[in-house]
Amino acid sequence: MPEPLLMTMGEGSAGYYIVLISVHGLIRGHDLELGRDADTGGQTKYVVELARALGERPEIAQVDLLTRRVVDPKVSDDYARAIEPLSAKARIVRIDCGEERYIPKEELWDYLESFSDNALAFLHAEPNLPQIIHSHYADAGHVGTRLSHQLGIPLVHTGHSLGRSKRKQLLASGVKREAIETTYTMSRRIEAEETTLGVAARVITSTHQEIEEQYGLYDCYQPDKMRVIPPGTDLGRFHPPDGDEQESAIARELGRFLHAPDKPMILALSRPDPRKNIIALIEAYGQSPRLQQAANLVIVAGNRDDIRDMESGAQEVLNAVLLAIDQFDLYGKVAYPKHHQPDDVSLLYRLAALSGGVFINPALTEPFGLTLIEAAACGLPLVATEDGGPIDIIGNCHNGHLIDPLDREAMAATLLGVLADMKAWRRFADNGIKGVRRHYSWQAHAEKYLDVIRPVIEQTEPLQRMSLPRRPGLYRSRALFTDLDQNLLGDRQALEAFLQLMRQHQKEVSFGIATGRRIDSALSVLRQYRIPQPDVLISSLGTEIHYAPNLAKDMAWARHINHLWSPGLVREILDELPGLQRQEKVHQGAFKISYYIDPAIAPDIQAIRQYLLQHDQTVNVFFSFGQFLDIIPIRASKGLALRWCAEQLDIPLENILAAGGSGADEDMMRGNTMAVVVANRHHEELSMADIERIYFAQQGYAAGIIEAIDHYGFFDTKKAA
């Protein structure tokens, strides 16, 4: 968890408290390592500058940018600092995420519940809760969705790069579907994006094209919730040339590569990422003798010491760059510096503008296009991909041309056209400078941002909880939650031993049961097996919560999970599908719709989820034991109910042991709880086999829980926080 704060932000002050979440990459308030890898690019810069810009607004009391804390000797110690102030009202807060090392975002998915649990604990420790949570990219969307569910705080989302659009572009460029899945964890990413889009109160995009052509690919496409706010840029850093740029160190560095350094410069600046399409640009240049005669090509693709030490994607791109330069014998015509400093970026734009050059972004898709705005602010005409942000940027500024990034011949012809017509070049340069000031300042961005979130905040009711009666002098510091059927009922001898253990420790450990059964069915089974009434009974897959001693129903939970729940519409939609038959009334509930499913006839579960999303129904879907289909509200599940109860009981998640045996138990066991999967688990649990925090018992039923109690030293009071 973050270290105790030396400053108190937001306490007693008027104004909005906004939480931004950007999980992956290396984020700090100075010397951003842009281009270091695929995860540290335009999004990194955007979220830091957004936090700063919002922090300058009088309407804002506090802005926290939550990102992953990284403790790794291979990166700066800056990324291990828990708190980094950005300004008087804005700061970066680094949250532990289960894995300390710096790893790619594609490997973070199994750790996001831990990030979410730690972020929740951090927010509860603050003097006030935020009014808005704003997630950035799919991984943060997953976290933001969980926090929004748990806190009842509206979610705003910015995708930055969308999985479906990215997959479409990669397929078009010849990458195999299997390779895309392996490299980018694409199915998991797209599922998180679909859920986030269904939950978010607003989705902020940079362009109208992004709404229509990229978000339009999603099942949960709701354009009425989407708002366009063009990204901002720092006009203090990015401005037309001063005239002394030629004396800079980066100018001398470029001169090392070039036979004729005074020629106009075609500048490309991006991460060494296959999606940035740098090789196509070099091929277009290499195949055009006229373009080689007219201009030099400058490729700035991040920083590198030894290509062999870089991650595989960057290695692939940089090796291909060197091979393409060699293939077309472009030595003396192409500069590809190994290093540049953050302040060199604006110098590079101005050097290109002084030379009468052009900035090109040939990416397969470009959601934002921050480099385009920066280049335009420096007076550099643009040639850019026709997919994403460039459409609006060039449409607003009238300062360049759009291209098909896969058409190398057209790319070369367009570059030649800009370089050859100096009258048009000067018009583009002047239009770009004026257009950025008019449309893309951070002040304008922050004003539009507040206009979007203000009505969302005003329409949100504060979260209410029920008050639990407490016995004087009794505080239980730990809790054990278990499924009923899969964990307790299969071995009576082990069950008796387990119950004996719980009786011995009942003064310090709360006992909870989380079951898919309705409460009346669960109570009947408890009586049949002589299981004492638990302190907490979570029933109907997490849609109902009752507390001892009188089985008081948590009505606040019922009101909370009613959000976005339309059971009549869900039944109407699903009743049309083949292979589904509604279960008997005894298995239905106010917040649980249950079907028998024949997998041989019915659509698969993913198709059912998609069908519901296409009809604007954002819900949780559970398939169990090969024959049962259950639909519950998006804010409900066993895991979300457990976390609600942990807050009610004032027990840290780290002090809770969760035991499960089927797919419906999975989110109880992800995150910061101690967790055990008993040996008689159903095959659905196998998706969790690689998560280190989860203990897989050798024994089944209650014996497996006893085994986990011993494994974790659960009854050792010294281990309780």
The order of strands across the largest sheet is 3-4-2-1-5-6-7-8
Helix content: 25-40%
Largest sheet: 8 strands, mixed
Give the low-pLDDT segments: 1-12
- The rounded Rg comes to 28 Å
Helix count, DSSP H or I runs of 4 or more residues: 26
Secondary structure class reads: alpha/beta
Shape descriptor reads elongated
Nearest-integer average pLDDT: 92
Relative strand content: 15-25%
Topology, number of strands: 26
How far is the N terminus from the C terminus? 13 Å
At a glance:
The chain has 26 helices and 26 strands. The protein has 721 residues and is of the alpha/beta class. An eight-stranded mixed β-sheet has the order 3-4-2-1-5-6-7-8, with helices on both faces.
Based on the model shown, name its key terms:
721 residues; alpha/beta; 8-stranded mixed β-sheet; 26 strands; 16% strand; disordered N terminus
What does this protein structure show overall?
- There is one protein chain.
- This protein has an 8-stranded mixed beta sheet with strand order 3-4-2-1-5-6-7-8, with helices on both faces. Strands 19-18-17-16-15-24-25-26 form an 8-stranded mixed beta sheet, sandwiched between helices. A 6-stranded parallel beta sheet has the order 11-10-9-12-13-14, sandwiched between helices.
- It is built from 26 helices and 26 strands.
- By secondary structure, it is an alpha/beta fold.
- The radius of gyration is 28 Å and the shape is elongated.
- The N terminus is likely disordered.
- α2 crosses α3 and α9 runs parallel beside α11.
- The longest helix is centred in the middle third of the chain and has 18 residues.
